[in-house]
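Reopening this ticket.

The earlier resolution said the output was attached, but the attachment link was broken on my side. Pasting everything inline this time so it's all in one place.
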Amino acid sequence: MDEQLLKKIDLIRERMGVSYREARDALDRASGDVVAALVLLEEELQGCHLCQKLKETLEKGISTKLRLKKGDHTILEFPAGLGLAGVLGMLLSDELAILGAACTVTALLTRCTLEIAGEEREENEIQIEA
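Inline output:
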């Protein structure tokens, strides 16, 4: 390995915070062009960052719970992500929209409450009166 190649790899590692192998691979894919290698790594890291954000959002949706309660009695509890999927389903299907409307009217008439609780706010639950 010549000294010029090592300098290019060191430059890429310093700028992108990647391993020697990742820097060398990117440099090889970019035919030795440092700027092109930096662009390749930046695009890959942005894709990973997007995946990480999606994963965090999904984990938060799973840890956040929706509870349908009547007084102190919990009737139904499910992850908030499932509730979001139900809302999207109602937007896409007439049958699900009718079912959702019927359930909402029933909850209003029976004075049920909807609580939103997550791990970080167990003590400060949000209540929505139906």
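Reporter confirms the inline version is readable. Residues 64-129 form one domain. The beta strands are 65-70, 73-79, 113-117, 126-129.
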